[in-house]
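<amino_acid_chain>
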Amino acid sequence: MTLYEELLFAGIEIDHHESDLYFPVSPQTTEILKRHHKAFEIATYFINQINYQTWYEVPFNFQPFWEQKANDVIMDSKFLNPSKTFEINCENFTPVESRNQSYSTISFN
């Protein structure tokens, strides 16, 4: 379950700007955030100017933003060339190490 999904499931008030996720700081939200280690590492907080409560800001974690972006890319690619398909040549699969995390690259031929 993503951070966004867990907050929704818990009934936590959320807000966002673009892909940044905002939610109030509380013992409950802090425990939820701590379970999502990467989000916890990049989370900051601010004072909400409407009710002066402290809120978390977690960049890139508002899931609907990314779902819409993915949908837009799919729609754009179908519009540009609906008959085009891609084939992945697994011989060109190369693992890459970066900042203690494993990533992979794939070359398209």
Helices lie at 3-9, 27-34, 37-42, 63-80. Residues 17 and 62 are 8 Å apart (CA to CA). The two ends are 35 Å apart (CA to CA). Confidence is low (pLDDT under 50) at residues 96-109.
